[in-house]
Amino acid sequence: MLQKARCSFRVLGLLSAITSLASANAAPLPSGCSPDATAPVQSTASPDVGMQPQNPKSSLIEFAKQHPESFAAQQSLGEFYLQQGRLSDGIPYLEKAMQIKPDDYNTGYDLSLAYLKSDNLTKAAEQLKAMIKRHETAELDGLLAEAFEKSGDYKNAGVTYDRAALLDPSEDNVFDLGSFLLQHPHYEGFLDKALVIFRYGVQQYPRSAKLNVGLGVTLYAEGKYDDAVQTLCSAVDLDPSDPKPYQFLGKVSKASPSLMPIIQDRLESFVRRYPENGPANYYYAMILWKQSDGGMAENRQMIEDLLKKAISADPQFYDAYFQLGVLYQDENKYADAITEFNQTLKLQPDYNRAHYHLVLLYNRTHQKELADEQLTILKQIKKQDAESEANP
What we know:
Layout: H1 12-17, H2 56-66, H3 71-83, H4 87-100, H5 105-117, H6 121-134, H7 138-150, H8 154-167, H9 171-183, H10 190-204, H11 209-221, H12 225-238, H13 243-252, H14 260-273, H15 278-290, H16 296-313, H17 318-330, H18 334-347, H19 352-364, H20 368-390
Helix pairs in contact: 2-3, 3-4, 4-5, 5-6, 5-7, 6-7, 7-8, 8-9, 9-10, 9-11, 10-11, 11-12, 12-13, 13-14, 13-15, 14-15, 15-16, 16-17, 17-18, 18-19, 19-20
């Protein structure tokens, strides 16, 4: 989505460091810290005399071979390979370039990113630490935090995400820090800290859909369901062309019955805007189903059609198969329901609710051996879940 950080984990660093923002959008927060980050040192390299390749690949390769001590020759070929997505080919040339000019910022950054994308996390961290020692910037801290996180060093990842936000409380850095805390809930007070961070972010970047989504998810995790739904609705309204806020809204829609009408309006807009989108059809089907108490007959066919369309758009969408199974079970179409629940389990074998429904349906259709088999699997899943909770 973990090791517990010390109690003084510096989430408050984001709050205390945002005293001296260069950005006109940022308001100072109480603090005694004033970061002195400066702009990244840009490469001052200029191509060697005569380096004017006409054929990008062959000319660059030939020139790099002829000029093994030329920073520009090695750097240009390395960058060319990176632009082609050929990381393993580009990295050696960037390494040669860094040996020639160790303090070149742009080459060092690109080499670090190439290491990170190729999962060479140790080299990525070493390169970034060396660059940060020479000149720290928020984007270097952000990459280093990502390297720590990917390697499972969550404590250092959290501190470094915080440091990036200290140096540059940009929309992306605030979002990265808040998101990290939400994904790693073993930090003491992680929800309170994430909430402070996302509220600050939304205050400073009120038109940021992703910060509103982050705030909405955090509010939901805190059990503030109406506030969460209203915030996610705001995220949808900020960027109606982005499907992600709609999907988050769909996931939390059941938590706020009093706001169902405004949720339904937005999910209906979602499916109109993206008629071939699996989640769009699925979440609109579910909101119609929720709103159909006493009037299921009116919307039943539409709900079934939407679920089938969700499956057609995304054949791996196991939740849609499951809900279609529930729909058929409610209509006493047991054979059809069994088919959908089994399809759910092909995609998600440990989906205990599907196993539970199959236990009921196999018993109801006098298939005792199959019912007993599903019951055994269900008990095993519950046992494993209990063991996981006891030994996180």
